[in-house]
Amino acid sequence: MMNPSVAPFLCDVMDKSIIRTEWEKWLRSFTLYLEAEDITTASKKRSKLLHLGGAQLQEVAYNIPDALVEGKEGVDPYEVLVGKLTQHFSPKRNSTFERHLFRSLKPMEGETLNKFILKLRGQAAKYQFGKTEKEVIETNIKDKHIDVWAPIDLKKRLLEKEHDLTQVVEMCQIHESIKSQTTTIVSDVVPLNVNKIANKTKFDTAECERCGRKGHTSNDFNCPAKNAKCNKCMLQGHFAVRCKTKRVKREHGSGSYDNLKRRRMAASRVRCINDEGEMRSEEMREFD
């Protein structure tokens, strides 16, 4: 019967971000169980681990190369299996990432101070700031670059693997240079677009002399008033809202706006000729 004090290790349904920590907890619990039950034989300890670990842990163990060794002199099959599983669930620690997690820790809602301190101590035990004073200073400067200066996309790259201070500063400088160049390119392009918009706005706000609408001129073939009749002067070629014709009685009915302009110009020229002819007639009478 399975010992209820050691639950199966459900690695298949476990969040990958916490699987290393959960494996360390499970293995610690299993080690205490072996001591309590006084199980010392290597083969028996390995069998107990596979049995209590459950089907999901067994699937992993049986598929890791050289995790299960048999009959090799001087080789402890239990230690080999534990080493392979630990390597599988707990890859090499990224100290930079572990320190980032430590600085990101916040107390959960309802969490007591003592429990939060224990959580901080557990996370702090997974990394070190350095062995010498210089290493400690450079480590803190490097971490500050990542936490405060680096934008989110660069931060992900810096936390993927270990980098020393020189590498972090260089990557930040490259990112800053690229950002500056991109901003310059964008600022050079914007004025052209602004001018285009300004010109377009000026054209759009001009009103047509025929219909009074915006977006085209009076010479536009598609102007809706080009062939329309004015309700004010009854002439063709414009709407009443843009009518410039005075209210006069016309003998010849309605005509077009363009024809009216031509007739006005012709009449003006005739009057000039008549005036000049009358003046010459008066001058001739004086000489008679």
Topology overview:
Blueprint lengths: L18 H19 L4 H12 L1 H9 L13 H13 L5 H10 L8 H12 L8 H17 L2 H9 L4 H41 L51 H31 L1
Strand content: under 5%
Radius of gyration: 46 Å
| Residues in helices, as a percent range | 55-70%
Overall domain count = 3
Number of E-state strands: 0
> Describe the biggest sheet?
none
Structure class: mainly alpha
Q: What are the low-pLDDT stretches, counting only 5+ consecutive residues below 50?
A: 248-255, 267-288
DSSP summary: helix tally? 10
> How far apart are the first and last residues' alpha carbons, in Å?
153 Å
Shape: elongated
Order of helices and strands: HHHHHHHHHH
Kindly state the mean pLDDT as a whole number? 76
Q: How would you describe the overall organization of this protein?
A:
The model is unreliable at 248-255 and 267-288 (pLDDT under 50). This protein folds into 3 domains: 19-89, no CATH class; 95-178; 210-288, no CATH class. It has helices at 19-37, 42-53, 55-63, 77-89, 95-104, 113-124, 133-149, 152-160, 165-205, 257-287. It is elongated, with a radius of gyration of 46 Å. The protein is an all-alpha fold and 288 residues long. The longest helix has 41 residues, at 165-205. Helix 2 runs parallel beside helix 4 (77-89) and helix 7 (133-149) runs parallel beside helix 9 (165-205).
Short descriptors:
288 residues, mainly alpha, 3 domains, 10 helices, elongated, disordered C terminus, Znf_CCHC_sf
